Amino acid sequence: MPTRVHEFAWPDRVVIGTIGLPGARTFYLQVRAGTQIVSVALEKQQSAQLAEKIDELLDQLSTVKDNPFSVPSSSPVELDDNEPLESPVEQFRAGAMSLGWDPTTAQVVIEAYPIDADVDDLDEPLENNGPEDTEMLLVRMPVGTARAFTKRTHEIVAAGRPSCAFCGYPMDPEGHTCTLPEV
What we know:
By secondary structure, this protein is α/β, with parallel strands linked by helices. It is built from two helices and seven strands. The radius of gyration is 18 Å and the shape is globular.
């Protein structure tokens, strides 16, 4: 199957957003450049881990002598994005993801593959063996945009259901049956 690559080299917008109420939210990684929009469904944990790993990468890069990539220590205010997701909302559900750094452009690189894609097969010769093509998302974002992305993502993830102080599980608005560990 040919791989359709949704590539964004200098996106206008890169955000994590949700649809639904806490406890039933679906998370999306949405990227836009001009009129091209791609939204990929993620798990909450994927969203949180992506933001955490980007922060770790940027923190590590900011310690390089003289900070040659001008990595900001926090999100530049002018890049904060609190707007809702744009339509269309889902292209595919992400499974495997990778994170990288391109020092030639000082950009964070994210790759997302569909949950059912075999990432090892994407480099093989393209053959049309089925009705559906394989897709992938390739996003390159500058360091300031990456910091704004992680700030918003942390806020979105934290805006879910509160955790029980005793068992740590999320509490639903209807109530919570705490499963305290036996002593």
